[in-house]
Write a structure and sequence with these properties.
about 110 residues, alpha+beta, two-stranded antiparallel sheet, about 10% strand, globular
Length: about 110
């Protein structure tokens, strides 16, 4: 069983031909739509926009491991553990920084009196 703890190990996995071909299968299976947004009644699809600054297609959809790659490496290529989600949902799922358009309530944890 492979381990995916370091950034190099993860990069090697995500650059592998087996992941790239499976990723394509999952995105097609999910109809090029964010599955989390779809469950909430929204439609977010891949628009194939091109980024001039990055000189590549803008990433709008990612294939997400429902059970994390680091903790469940045996499920890395398991179809039932993968779903297509948009970048915003992926950021929320991993509790990363909010997206540019998302407002942050800076008073959320302030004392109310």
């Amino acid at each position: 069983m492979s381990k995916y703890k370091t950034p190099e190990q993860k990069r090697r996995f995500y650059d592998s031909p087996s992941w790239r071909s499976l990723r394509r299968v999952i995105v097609e299976r999910d109809n090029f739509e964010c599955q989390q947004c779809k469950r909430n009644g929204l439609v977010v699809i891949d628009t194939n926009e091109y980024s001039e600054t990055a000189k590549r297609k803008k990433i709008q959809l990612v294939v997400h491991h429902i059970r994390e790659l680091e903790r469940y490496p045996e499920l890395a290529l398991e179809i039932s553990n993968l779903e297509t989600i948009c970048v915003a949902c992926h950021e929320k799922e991993h509790k990363r920084m909010p997206m540019k358009n998302e407002k942050v309530n800076k008073w959320k944890n302030d004392e109310r009196w």
